[in-house]
């Protein structure tokens, strides 16, 4: 899933990735093409990466996440 986030946000990660408090070193690349090419090898810890993104603005929600959230929103909560 991180790969899809990287594909969707490669330009943002190149520009603002150094500001990620914990996982900046995992996404440090010199250009978007290099980051996209290395997306399978970029392995920041999932929880740390998610927390970094929660406190950082400007990234785009990948389509698969937006669709999943919309799907979940369609369910009725049953007590």
Summarize the structure.
With 79 residues, the chain is an all-alpha fold. It is built from 5 helices and no strands. The termini are far apart.
Written overview of the protein:
The chain has one domain (2-73). The protein is 57% helix and 0% strand. It has five helices and no strands. The chain has helices at residues 2-16, 24-27, 32-37, 46-54, 63-73. It is elongated.
Topology, please?
Layout: H1 2-16, H2 24-27, H3 32-37, H4 46-54, H5 63-73
| Quantity of strands, as a count | 0
Mean pLDDT metric: 90
**Major sheet size, sense and barrel closure:** none
Instruction: Tell me, briefly, the overall form.
Output: elongated
Report the sheet-strand fraction. under 5%
Defining key terms:
79 residues; mainly alpha; elongated
